[in-house]
Structures are given as C-alpha cells and as structure tokens.
C-alpha cells in the first residue's frame, strides 16, 4: 500500500513554537477570572459565557473553512450505542479511557439496598466515600462517546454501499476520556468538531492533506504559534508501544501542536487521522467496486484551541489582536477565502 509522504514537507515549514512557553498557571488564572468554573473534580469544568462565546465563534469559522465540502451535517448526543462501541475495537486500544453508562434497574429490594449503601457513604467524611451503592447499578445499552466520529462509521455502513464520490460528514459532540488531570488541556469531557471522509484511499488521503493545510491556515489566522508533527494515539498496555510505533511508521496520525498549559510540552489542538480500512473492515463499509472503504478524520479540539487563544492573547477577549477579533467577531469569510486561495486547497 502507498503510504502518505506529503505531510512531511509541511512539518518543517511552521513557526518557532519552542521559544514560546506553555503556561502551567493558566488553569488557576482562568478559574480565578471566572472563565472556567471549578467543579471540584479534575478535568470537569463549567464554562462561562465568555468561554462559550469563543467556542461558538471558533465553531463558526470551522464551518466556513469547510463550506465547500458540502458535508452532511449530523449531530449526536455525547453517547453512543454500546453494540457499536463494542464492535469499534476501542476497548482493545484504550480500555483505560472509556466511559460506560450504568443505571439502577432493580426492584424494591434492590432500591432498599442502594439507599442503605448510600446512607453509609454519606455518613462518612467526604474523603472516605465508598462506591458500594453502585453495586446496584447495571450497564445500560449506552456508552459515552470517546471521539465525535465514532457514531458515524456504523451509520454509513447501515446505509449500504458508498456512492462513487464517497461521503463527507460533519459532526460536533462532547466526548469523554477517563484521564483526570489538573492540566486544563486534558479534560475528561470536551468537545470535538470533526470532518470525516469515507471513500477510496486516494479520496481519503487527499482529504487529510487538504485539512492539514486548512487547519494550519485556521491556526495562523488565530495567530497562534504551532507545529505540525507526526503522532500516535495513547495505546494501552505492553502491546501498545508496538501499535503506536507502527502507527508512526505508517504516518497515520498528525497533530497540530500549540504551547498551552502543559509544562515543557506542546498540546495537540487539531489532529489529522488516517485509519486506512480499519473502520471500513469492522463495519463492512463498501465502495462501489465492493472493496473496503478507507476513512480519515480531522478533529478540532474546541476546548484546547480556546485555551490556546486565552493563553496567547490574554484573558480579556476585548484586548485580543485586532485581526483575531475581526476573524472571530467580524466578517471571517473574506479572510478565509484569502487563506484558502493561498493554500491552494479551495474548490
Ligand atoms: Zn475522528
């Protein structure tokens, strides 16, 4: 199989992120300013009007950036069918990150036991709370969505064979990953906007290359320092390193990295993923010639990109650079048209 090589050309072209520091005080400053709201649980935040306004505006410029794709817009709740999740092989790679949904499904006796266990737990201090009451909880048929694109592949498969031009889908959802952290760039619940391409290897590769360029154009318009780099997913366990190495070797994943809050480390704000026929095979998504469809997705980390904007332009959005304000609060369309003309990826 032909492996992608084009992105390597881009990697050397980008700005000097190493000279721009990430800011480990960002979380505290955002909470103090009331922009993020501390819930008492690491990685779970409330969002203020100011924060949400930036997320909304970012979402809008991403829509403009992808307007020529005529993507099918689909919105899913932050949960997916457990059966589809089981099929997805997510648990093979990331068992530690998954979140399942449980609910009480018992009778009166079970309810009694639940309340007894709950009383016991409430009687002890905050620190020693036990989860004994959860013995009464049983799995539901839903799990939390681990990545915004996951509900899309089984859906496309259920529709039957792809058309000649394949499919492009636009999704936006809260996602869950069980990785409590005080790094605001590592939330347990966060939003991902994604464009997903399903089709032939050539269609899918062209899509990913286009979005590496467009994603870079977006972040340039946001005036954030960044790098594009080869990456791997955090595969679990002893076998995980081998899978991660192979993912790198085949250049399946690239990330757009910005210094945000992690000390001495850049944060992936956008990712460009080529899954080859992985999802096509699991759900038997077929191209017109009966061969398995390939898939790719570009993911925009909405919270991470928003955090990056606060990190680099300050907590007062009225003082952000004029061009960034025009881009987000003014008329972004001509700026995007201009940027697309320059990347040569306009339609
Ligand atoms: Zn995806």
UniProtKB/TrEMBL annotation:
Per UniProt, the keywords (alphabetical) are: Ligase
* Record bears the keyword Lipoprotein: no
Endpoints of the signal sequence:
none
Tell me the GO molecular function terms: ligase activity
Catalytic activity, EC: 6.2.1.-
Which organism is the protein's source?
Caballeronia terrestris
Q: What is this protein called?
A: Amino acid--[acyl-carrier-protein] ligase
From which domain of life does this come?
A: Bacteria
- Top-tier EC class: ligase
List the residue ranges of the region (Disordered).
Answer: 1-21
């Amino acid at each position: 199989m032909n492996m992608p090589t084009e992105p390597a050309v881009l990697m050397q072209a980008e700005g000097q992120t190493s000279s721009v520091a990430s800011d480990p005080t960002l979380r505290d400053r955002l909470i103090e300013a009331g922009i993020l709201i501390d819930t008492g649980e690491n990685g779970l935040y409330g969002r203020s009007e100011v924060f949400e306004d930036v997320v909304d505006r970012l979402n809008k410029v991403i829509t403009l950036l992808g307007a020529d794709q005529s993507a099918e817009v689909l919105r899913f709740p932050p949960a997916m069918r457990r059966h589809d999740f089981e099929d997805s092989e997510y648990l093979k790679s990331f068992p530690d990150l998954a979140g399942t949904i449980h609910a009480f499904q018992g009778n009166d006796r079970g309810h009694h036991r639940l309340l007894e266990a709950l009383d016991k737990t409430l009687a002890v201090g905050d620190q020693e709370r036990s989860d004994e009451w959860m013995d009464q909880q049983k799995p539901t048929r839903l799990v939390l969505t681990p990545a915004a694109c996951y509900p899309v592949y089984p859906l496309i498969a259920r529709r039957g064979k792809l058309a000649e031009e394949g499919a492009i889908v636009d999704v936006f959802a809260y996602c869950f990953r069980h990785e409590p952290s005080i790094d605001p760039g590592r939330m347990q619940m966060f939003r991902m906007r994604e464009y997903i391409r399903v089709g032939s290897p050539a269609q899918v590769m062209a899509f990913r290359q286009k979005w590496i360029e467009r994603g870079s154009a977006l972040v340039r318009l946001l005036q954030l320092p960044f790098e594009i780099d080869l990456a791997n997913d955090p595969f679990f366990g002893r076998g995980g390193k081998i899978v991660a190495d192979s993912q790198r070797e085949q250049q399946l994943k690239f990330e757009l990295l910005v210094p945000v809050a992690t000390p001495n480390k850049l944060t992936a704000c956008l990712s460009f993923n080529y899954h080859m026929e992985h999802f096509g095979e699991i759900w038997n998504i077929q191209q017109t010639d009966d061969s398995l469809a390939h898939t790719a997705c570009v993911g925009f980390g909405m919270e991470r990109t928003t955090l990056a904007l606060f990190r680099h332009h300050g907590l007062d959005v009225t003082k952000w650079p004029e061009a960034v304000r025009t881009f987000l609060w003014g008329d972004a369309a001509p700026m995007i048209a201009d940027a697309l003309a320059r990347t040569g990826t306009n339609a």
